[in-house]
Amino acid sequence: MPTLLQSISYLALVLASFSPLSVWGFDNTRNDNVAVYWGQNSFGATNPSDTANWQKTLSFYCQDNSIDAFPLAFLDVAFGTGGLPSINLANICNDSDDPVFPGTDLPNCSFLASDIQTCQAKGKIVTISIGGATGAVSFTSDSQAQQFADTIWNLFLGGSSSTRPFGSAVLDGVDLDLEGGSPSHWPAFVTQIRSHASGASKKYYITGAPQCPFPDAFLGSVLNSVGFDAIYVQFYNNFCGLQAFTNPNAWNFAQWDNWAKTVSPNRNVKIYIGAPAAPQAAGSGYVSASTLASDALQTRSQFSSFGGVMLWDASQAHANGNFAAAIKSALSNGGAPVPTTSVPPTSTTHVPPTSTTSSPSPSPSSGSCGTVSAWVSTIAYVGGDQAVFGYASSRLHCAKLTTPLSGHLWTAKWWNFDETPGGASGAWQDNGLCGSSLVGKTNHRTTSETPKLKQRSRIYGRE
Q: In sequence order, which ranges of 157-200 are alpha helices (DSSP H)?
């Protein structure tokens, strides 16, 4: 006969299996998930002297139940030396400071296998994020896209290869953070990944990270063509960021919710509020943890497509008072599998007309920049991005201009970083003085992604 103590211990174990602890971890049917990007040491880039808070290894951020999904950022080179991709995880693993597989620029980060498996054992998913601010991955044909999908499957997911950068660890899917290149042929890539996953013994996820202006310039057509499990909409560094949550003419979660329910090939796709995890994590859009929690809970009560919150990035979140834990705590209060239908209040369902949610080419004679963000030196811009610069918009940087301007609209001609509009580089086209309102896209990342790839290890402090 078991003793009384043994009986109580057994009962405790049974009860624990039915406790709220069992819902911790990623579940795509729920509305309380927190996804946090890891890999770019954003805090270290903006706080180079505070080495104590530089990005830690992945398992460090898995010790509590704050984060459910980790996109690893970034796979930023698709077809490198030897025809294989390359990844850059800043101070943790990169092709400058770590061994690479012979004949390639693909770093051997197999020491991260145990970290990844530790996180997965706690119910979290770990995916590989393709793209980023400098990762302009493009394809010339569907066939090339399919071949690249085969490579990703064999190197990171359920396939096999002698050049697996994370060793025996099997990632849980792919995240597309496309901020350059061409959207052409990406549907073929996603379809090929889905084809491999259809016969697998585990679930694989496809996510994307569009910016909030609808439709996204790089992912919009892809999202309309193939099913995604979740999208982490970047509600920052844009007119429609979290700073505009109370403005129904700018905050456009309703537009994304409508897309999810009427356009997306997967009508069960989840929409996340993407947010900066600290003031320095983005140029605009940061709000406090309490404000973000309130905004997220209000959005969840209105839109059944709501899946959770995405944060950029893990290093910033941890240094900012464990920002992710505060958001997870708020979402966990009432989080559950989402209902199948939802009717948002009329006052918050305003959808801006098409002319204010795209990025048309501005007139060469005069600029219109009522809602375009001011130029920020710590943001990388790609060709077509717009920014406002001059005494009226950016007093911190206007001294660099040889001729003072008063609120001009500028359009980037090519990828550039810390190239002052009107400066000698010629990276910006002056579209004239600001006039009426025009919505323009601005890049969402900060200096953590913009330095030249070969210099990142020194910038991020890895010796």
A: 186-197
395 is written with which tokens?
């007093």
User: Residue 151 carries which side chain, given as an amino acid letter?
Assistant: T
- What residues contact 293, with CB distance under 8 A and at least 6 apart? 326, 327, 330, 331
SS3 306: strand
Cβ of 200: how many Cβ atoms within 10 Å?
Answer: 13
Q: Is the peptide bond before 344 cis (omega within 30 degrees of 0)?
A: no
Measured CA distances, 18 to 24, 180, 375 (Å): 12, 46, 52
Phi-psi region of 426 (alpha: psi -120 to 50; beta: other; left: phi over 0): left
User: Residue type for 148, please?
Assistant: F
Question: What secondary structure, in 3-state letters, does 120-166 show?
Answer: HHCCCEEEEEEEECCCCCCCCCHHHHHHHHHHHHHHHCCCCCCCCCC
Tell me the per-residue pLDDT of 215-243, one tens digit each, with 9 for 90 and over: 999 999 999 999 999 999 999 999 999 99
- State the catalytic residue, choosing from 179, 419, 449, 463: 179
> Does the annotation count 463 as an active-site position?
no
Instruction: Please say whether the beta carbons of 197 and 189 come within 8 A.
Output: no
Task: Dump pLDDT digits (tens) for 135-180.
Answer: 778 899 999 999 999 999 999 999 999 999 999 999 999 999 998 8
Q: Within 10 Å of residue 196's Cβ, how many Cβ atoms?
A: 17
User: CA angle, 158 as apex, 156 and 160 as ends, to 5°?
Assistant: 75
